[in-house]
Amino acid sequence: MKKYRRVTRTILIALLLAFVFRSYLFASYIVDGESMEPTLNDGNLLMVNKAVYDWKEIGRQQVIVFHANEEEDYVKRVIGIAGDEIAVKSDQLYINGEQVEESYLDPLRPSDGLPFTNDFTLEEVTGHETVPEGHLFVMGDNRRDSLDSRYFGFVPAEAVVGKVDVRYWPVNQLGVQF
């Protein structure tokens, strides 16, 4: 009888821990679409760290999941944070006047002679000179085929679900650095 109580207690504790981890610390998401290729592909399963931004600030270049509206969550890369001036000139990203290396785009850059990212300034696409306090400017890695801040504007920081930490499916694409 004691053996069954121990097993039952162990199972209940495991279920409670799984519930806490799932509800408060991590969430699982499925990539829907091609806007983050080649970093993330349609159908990839992701583990999103929901608690990381309770301890640290959201940073540039991080891949995040956020509530785009009441029905959809999007996965995009943070390009700009509060106070940043953003521009793309001759297919190069500039933040606060300094060129930013985006090596994660290299596998997708076509050699068709056309720009991968069309020229723009933050003011042209949002009407603001800088990213407002409490907001982010996000873009998909597949710059030619991404619905992102160039089209829908800034993302409120409170809409962020969390940081993409792990791609766990398919197993042959297991990854932890994005």
Task: Write up this protein.
The protein is of the alpha+beta class. The chain has one domain (about 25-175): Umud Fragment, subunit A, CATH 2.10.109.10. The chain has helices at about 1-25, 50-55, 120-125, 150; strands spanning about 25-30, 45-50, 65, 75-80, 85-90, 90-95, 100, 120, 135-140, 155, 160-170. The strands form two sheets. Strands 1-2-11-3-4-9-10 form a seven-stranded antiparallel sheet. The mean pLDDT is about 85. Keywords: Hydrolase, Protease. It is a single-pass type II membrane protein.
Helices, by number, come to: 4
Strand/helix succession: HEEHEEEEEEHEHEE
What would the CATH topology be?
Umud Fragment, subunit A
End-to-end distance: 50 Å
CATH architectural name: Ribbon
Strand content: 25-35%
Specify the structural class: alpha+beta
| Average pLDDT level | 85
